[in-house]
Fold each of these.
Amino acid sequence: MQANDHIKDSLRKTIKTFFNVLPIIVGMLLLTSLLVTVFPEQISAGLFGNGDILDTLLGASIGSIAAGHPLASYLLGGELLGGGVSLIAVTALVVTWVTVGIVQLPAESLLLGTRFAVYRNIISFIAAISIAFLTVYTLRFFGLN
Amino acid sequence: MPKQQVKSSRGGWLFLALTLLAYMLLGLSNPEVIVKALTFFTHVMAQVLPMLGLVFLLLFIANLLLEPKRIKRYLGKESGIKGWVTAVLGGILSVGAIYAWYAMLSELKKKGMRTALIATFLYSRAVKLPLLPLMVHYFGAIYTLVLCLYLIIFSVVSGILVEKLTKQKTE
């Protein structure tokens, strides 16, 4: 009897949470679809070529606002590498693509708190740039690049 | 209903309404873009629907089995190294879109999950196990290995920093 009540209670809680989350998920998908349509992937290697620091900041910024499957970042990163963009900038793009979410920020704020979402994204952005430099310099240090 | 839940519920509907308003306003000047965006949305929604089913199931299991006491033991303030390992591995093994996990993490937070571990979980999701072969294909095995190691280290660092900063502002 008590177990039954616990199952019913859990189900009721789950349905309530699910319906609270649903408009956020649908809204976010609508927003992502709009951004992907309005700003198609027209990022060319021509935007880069301003030195490691500026290129890395640009790569990290593009990754932060990009919305889409991480696989797309590998494809774009591969294209950019082929176009002569530095590995540091490409790494920053690939890492921010999956760790920083400007488009997801409203959903993250609503569910996990605005302060948490803002700090997490800022720290993730800085961390991505650090990781980009560290990864490439580690490879260079061991002569593996 | 707790204050945070009411806020998130109302905020969610407001967010959806604002997004729909943006569609309507843009649709007045450029209906073609809206048709394209809605086509894209339908395509993505079709992919996400099974994931929503999984989210519902995970939420139900969490509500059924994970009691606050247990969450606090494994992912709470006193969880120690066990908590960090759980968060990193959980993030690496988690599949699907990130927003699906926000709901789950929000529930776990209410039950006592540590802020640092939520941030760590979200960061370690950058290590995408199913996509590793593709990353190796594009960037090489050694690059992939080094990058993944740094991602894991920084997932813990970012967790510590996010917790410190959010705590400082709360105090």
Note: Chain B is about 85% helix and 0% strand.
Amino acid sequence: MVEGEPTVRVELPTGLREYAGGRDSFEVRAGTLADAVRALNAQFPGLAYRLLDDQGRMRRYVLVFVNEDPVAHLEPEAVRLRDGDTVHIVPSVAGG
Amino acid sequence: MAAIKKGDTVVLVGTRKGLFLFHSRDRRRWQSRGPFLRGQEVRHAILDPRDGKTVYAGGTDEHWGPAIARSTDFGGRWTMGEEGPRYSKESGLTATRVWQLQAGEDGDLWAGVEPAGLFRSGDGGKTWASVDGLNYRPERKDWQPGGGGLVLHTILPYPGEPNRMLVGISSSGVFGTHDGGATWQEMNGGVRKYEGGVMKDNVIGSCPHKIARDARDPAVLYMQNHVGVYRRRRGDPGWTIIEEGLPKIEKKVPASFGFPMASHPHDAGTAYVVPLEGDFNRVTPKGAMAVYRTRNGGNRWQRLSKGLPQKDAWFTVLRDALRTDDGDPAGVYVGTTTGQLYASRNEGDSWQLLADHLNGIQSVEAGTVGGR
């Protein structure tokens, strides 16, 4: 954890748990969504690849909510997090 | 689960919903394993011919991206690199799907992805490096997608010469390198233009569907293209049409349409295709399935249908869903988009239904456990 950064909770969906040691909820210190992804990737290398495309944006069918606000369309570096926020990562309802 | 032993034939079947593995000692009685990579679309999987036991599978999870998985115990345990093939930040591109895997001549593993790009791994798929000489060549701006997207779907290393390789990109063409991927030349000469006439080499715009090397002379190539079936021999200035005996789209368009092309594992001049009705209706002609074989380098094709459905068989056979094993006589395997897997243990003379009710078959590969 990064001293001085807000403490936030990150909730992962079922499909990502196999890349996160079987867990679905994490507390990390992160000032931005990008920081939160980096913090998770430090614990579980490869998890960031599952979330971010080659340009560092959230993958096309990955939805992200900070509390109740959708933020997946924003640059992860630009999504500011505050103490006590919950980041929900959700697969979009899509596919066949 | 039945054991897989050295000398068994293994058939890997990539489907829209996972990977399946079939194995047999005698190619008469088969056992199955899978599904592996559940929920992922597996466009291609290979049995590494260098050891005859390592399976690589290119899977795509529509939510969590593409990845290449590796198993050395036929699906008991899978490992994945931390990342799959990735484009550079500067390129503005994102790899969305793995279309092709191929073992290289010098221990490398190659991957072809969508949007079209070639990547190399020197550590069995743990990490990947872009082949910049192809992926970022200035002419890329003119590459156009085909119906399946802009994809690099064929990778053909040259046996014994690690610096030589050929790739197929839809819908841009065939590209060859002689310097390990630093520079590439278009190889589309002789291919029909959509508007009439034929293309020249060193231009782009052709849509190769699948290319295979001849068993005896790797410089001899066979290609199923969007607009016909072709052969290219050592020193030829371009591709030659080889369609005698194949069904044609219609009289006005004399080309033969289809997706796959597979060559025999041992015999010179022997190759297989599965013609479809045409690009306007990509199904088996007249609802009757047939594989066509040439034994003379494409001078003449023979229809093979014994054991294949001849009524109400309106499906598609995709570009990687036809392959041979390395047996003698050769086994031939073909998968359909409606989930049937057919196998022949006598070079295509007759066929048996090996599996029914799979999900749409994307690819078929066959090999011998422990190599041959």
Note: Residues 7-91 of chain A form a domain with the Ubiquitin-like (UB roll) fold (CATH 3.10.20.30).
